[in-house]
Automatic annotation (TrEMBL):
It comes from the Eukaryota. It is found in: Cytoplasm. PANTHER family: CERAMIDE-BINDING PROTEIN SVF1-RELATED, SVF1-LIKE PROTEIN YDR222W-RELATED. It comes from Drechslerella stenobrocha 248. Residues 220-381 form the Svf1-like C-terminal domain. This is Survival factor 1.
Length: 381
């Protein structure tokens, strides 16, 4: 039994990789070559990946509601390449968290059947699920009844252009960069108007507010692509800021990539490639055995539309975390042990949602904006 499980996990998860070194990664920054910090999106940039090799594609709709709670809807579409074939899994996730009443936290992760795409591969459908991009590329309609206890009905409308870092938003992996064997890419709608509701266990919850949409792909085994992640989503009255940072495993030289940007209604203020995340203070989490961040600092550096130097800083001392997600929580313990032993994989996500201040300096002019931030610190291997 153990040998069979180990073989199955090797196909799906894989063992630790050889040490290829940082030269086997071409980051977004390197691909941009100093010529382009960001590129505005078209609908074609939001197509779902089409591949039979191991990959994870996701679309996430984050909401800072007018009423105060945090809400999220997410599609995860995964392809796992096994020894002689490949198979697909798909989930629709819903999360609702009220910082004023922490006991109301709700989480649903429901497998969906018969996933498919429209001809352009910009809209996703499955039994009782639809994530539809409008013809003009200006809004998504998100509907799900996959979980009988968690309905979802949303309209996500762009208030500023979407963007991707550099020329194509891609970090590629491989010893021959003309034919890379893997990639990570992100596309952002940083500032959106959200209208809609959840129905949680028969109770309707309005989730109108401001939102961030991210379309992402990891076209390789996720724990081979990145060992750690940091993420910030700030939403204020006039400004939105997003940063996605990851560090590769030692097999790719612990290479760090951090992309992001700022937006106001109607425009992308800047797309940034020179970004940093600092875990200023941490405490060991004895249960998960990871250093949970307590004080954190996000810094964006770029240029505004007029070519002026722009620096944005968000510093935060976290209160109690919103959640700690055991990514393999539904996996039997013996399988977890195999994965950890074979590939050092032990993924946990620390989530926070709190009021925050974004300090933006353009030239010699400094502005402060009060808003809310949703943040994640993810440890994988």
């Amino acid at each position: 039994m153990f040998k069979w499980a180990q073989g199955a996990m090797s196909s799906a998860i894989g063992t630790a990789e050889p040490v290829y070194g940082p030269e086997a990664v071409q980051t977004v920054q390197q691909r941009a070559g100093g010529k382009c910090d960001y590129t505005e999106l078209t609908s074609k940039d939001l197509t779902w990946h089409d591949s039979s090799s191991t990959n994870v594609g996701t679309q996430v709709f984050y909401i800072a509601t007018e009423a105060g709670p945090f809400a999220m809807a997410q599609v995860i579409y995964s392809v796992v390449e096994a020894a002689v074939t490949s198979f697909t899994t798909c989930h629709f996730n819903i999360k609702l968290f009220d910082p004023k009443n922490r006991d109301t936290k709700f989480w649903s992760s429901c497998p969906v059947k018969n996933p498919t795409f429209d001809e352009a591969r910009t809209s996703f459908y499955a039994d009782n699920v639809g994530v539809t991009l409008s013809e003009d590329g200006g809004f998504y309609k998100v509907k799900s009844q996959a979980d009988p206890e968690a309905f979802c009905n949303l309209v996500f409308t762009r208030l500023s252009p979407g963007f991707m870092a550099g020329t194509d938003g891609r970090t590629t992996y491989g010893t021959d960069q003309e034919k890379p064997w893997g990639e990570i890419k992100h596309r952002f709608w940083p500032r959106c108007k959200v209208e809609g509701f959840f129905v949680i266990k028969g109770e309707t919850v309005k989730v109108d507010g401001q939102g961030l949409f991210i379309h992402a792909l990891q076209d390789m085994k996720p724990h081979h692509a990145a060992a750690r992640w940091n993420f910030a989503n700030f939403q204020g009255p006039t400004t939105s800021a997003v940063m996605m940072e990851f560090t590769t495993p030692p097999s790719y030289g612990l290479t760090r990539v951090a992309v992001g940007g700022l937006a106001k209604d109607g425009q992308v203020v800047t797309g940034t490639l020179d970004n940093t995340v600092e875990h200023v203070k941490v405490e060991n989490d004895p249960e998960a055995e990871w250093p949970e961040p307590k004080d954190i600092k996000f810094t964006w550096k770029g240029k505004d539309k007029d070519g002026k130097e722009l620096v944005a800083v968000l510093e935060k001392s976290w209160g109690p975390r919103m959640d700690r997600v055991d990514v393999m929580g539904e996996v039997p313990n013996f399988v977890k042990k195999i994965a950890s032993a074979a590939a050092g994989t032990r993924p946990y996500i620390y989530q926070f949602y709190e009021p925050a201040t974004l300090k933006v300096t353009v030239g010699d002019q400094e502005t402060l904006e009060e808003g809310v931030v949703f943040s994640e610190a993810t440890f994988i291997s």
